[in-house]
Structure formats: C-alpha cells, structure tokens
Amino acid sequence: MRIQAAVLRDTAKPFAVEDVHLHDPGPGEALVRVAGAGLCHTDVVFRAFPQLPMPMIFGHEGSGVVEAVGPGTSRVKPGDHVVMSFDSCGWCVQCVTGAPAYCAEFMTRNLSGTRVDGSSGATDLAGAPVAARWFGQSSLATHAVATERNLVVVDPSLPLDLLGPLGCGLQTGAGAVLNSLPVRPGDGVAVFGAGAVGLAAVMAARVAGASDIVAVDLHASRRDLALELGATRALDGADPELAAQVGQVEHSFDTTGVSAVMATAVSVLKVGGTCGLVGAGGGDLTLSPLALAGRGVRYIFEGDAVPQRFIPRLIALWQQGRFPFERLIRTYPLADVDAAERDSAAGGTVKPVLLP
After folding, report:
1. Do 76 and 58 share a structural domain?
2. Closest CA to 249 of 214, 202, 297
3. pLDDT tens figures, 315-341
4. Parallel, antiparallel or unpaired: strands 351-355 and 2-8
C-alpha cells in the first residue's frame, strides 16, 4: 500500500515526508489509518543513535481506525478506533504475569525498528527497505501496521486525533505515579521535568491525593501550567538551592535523564521513599551507598502499565475532568514535523501531535 510518512534518512538531517510502500499486515497484525501521532522525547533521543537502521519511520504514540487485519487477528476488527501503544510478545513470564513493559522481547519489538524476524515493514519507491516498526507501529505516517498486542480499542465518540499520547508519554508519567511508586493520599511527590511525562505525573499525583506536589522545570511557562494542573509548588530547576527548596518527600520522579538532576531527585527522598526514573540519554547516575539508606531507586518502563487496562482508566479520568491531558497538546500537520520537534525542544510546545 502506498502511504506518506515522515522518513528519517540521516541522523544529521531533518525528517522528509515522502511516499513509501507499506507492507500488508501479517498474522496478528492490523493496518491502521492514523488520525494523530504524538512526537515523544524518545523519538528525538533515539533518532540520533547510529545503530538504528536507516531510513526509518518514527512515531510511537499513534491513534487511528483499523482498516484491515492480517490472518489470525482476533482482538481488533476493521472499523475499530484504537490507540497504539508499545508492543510485547504475550507469552514470556513478564507478559503473562501482567508486566508487558518488561517483556523479554521488548527491545527487539520496540527499539529495533523492524519486525522480530528482521523484516523492515516498508520500502521506498525505489524498492529499498524502510524501517517501519518503531515500537511496533511507526505512526508518523498516514497509515501504520501494528500488532494486535499494542492496540487498545476505544469508544468511537472520543476525539481520536488527540488520544495517541496516551499510548506512551502520558501513560508513562501517570503510570509511574499510580502504578509504580505508587503515590498514596497525603504523600509528597517531587516531579523533575514538566514536559508531557512530568505533567502527566503531576495530574496523576493530584488524582492519587498527594498533599504536596512539587513541579521542577527550567521553563516558567511549564511551571505555571503545572500549577494549573495540580502542582502545589513549582520551582526553577536552575535554582542552586533546589534540593533545599524541594524539602523532603515520600516520592520523587525524574523525567530529564540528566545525572545531576537524578541525583537531586534521590537526595530529596525521606527514609522509606522511592525515586522513579524514566529519562534517557543524559549520562550515568553516581550515588553514595549511604544516599540509598532506607530509600529505593528504580527505572520505570511505560508506567508499569498494561495498556488495555490503563489507557481506558486515563480516558475515564479525562472524562471526569481529572486528567485534562488535552491542555498539553498542540497539533501540527505531518509536513511540519520538524517545526514540531523544534518547538518542543524550545519548551513552547509540551506535546506535539502530528495530523496526517
């Protein structure tokens, strides 16, 4: 099938929207007409990794309508409205015990850009392979082929073009607070980085009943938004006395991946507290063993969520007015993907969503 997609051919160059041939869905797969696709920080970080196959179609926060299914596909059918999340095998120990984010095949299925068998999923008009299975979807395109394991069927009355970010970034931030740490009523939580993941964590902390919700960011506009979304305090990440300003909390959550920020996130924990980490690409974390006395640190994938259960929960919270994620979103035409990336990096746009 001939589609349009934002193709990255060189890590040093911008995306280019071009025509490609998308392969038909295979066993357990579905063809999805994309309504919207979030641009996630993970896309930006990993696009610079030289080991990834190029050219590649990124995008792993897609939503759309199923148009066709491959042999043996039974969980979705043509016409279903779906959110695309991460892929998992479904049969390893982690998957069968409700932890698909730690699937034994997670890296291959989500971060290789190809199918498990190594096939690319698409070709360009000259017949050369184009990697089209980023997080099992590659949704910065008019159409994507996803596995039924990473599809979540949603009510067709919902604003489908805005739902894609629930599949990764918003799920990660909210899930870290509600599933992983987890934050309890009356707890204090400090969130470092008020991008989409961090602000999802702020909103989830309010849902959880936290009494002290501290948002830390370098951008004043994001600190202001955090206060509107439920933070009780918002602090400048450049403050040299940041740790003292935060004080001591039961939980901390770092979305930056920056070594110094992660160390600060650990330092503000009360004894018995836990620090959750999700950021990537910022360097190693070095801590004194004594800094961990009675405290815990864990790296969290996908908010420890089972997407088919957690995404409907987030949608229900949104319908109740308790998780207003639409306030984070700014939409762009797919052709403006590079502008969306620049605006996000500059802090002006929290969550870009590309519309084919």
Report:
1. yes
2. 214
3. 999 999 999 999 999 999 999 999 999
4. unpaired
For 227, the domain range is: 172-302
Task: Tell me the whole-structure pTM to 2 decimals.
Answer: 0.96
- Asked whether 214 and 232 are in contact (CB, 8 A), the reply is yes
Residues 94 and 204 occupy one common structural domain: no
- Statement to judge: residues 19 and 55 lie in one domain: yes
As for how many domains the chain has, the answer is: 2
Q: What is the mean pLDDT of each successive set of 10 residues along the chain, which is 356 residues long?
A: 96 92 97 97 80 93 98 97 97 97 96 94 97 97 97 98 97 98 97 97 98 97 98 97 98 95 96 92 82 95 98 98 98 97 92 97
Q: Specify the DSSP class assigned to residue 262.
A: H
Asked if 303 contacts 171 with a C-beta cutoff of 8 angstroms, the reply is yes
- Give the dihedral of Cα atoms 175, 196, 354, 107; nearest 10 deg: -50
Residue 7 lies in a domain: yes
110 and 24 part of one domain: yes
- Per the CB < 8 A criterion, the answer to whether 4 and 142 are in contact is yes
Alpha carbon 151 to chain centroid distance?
15
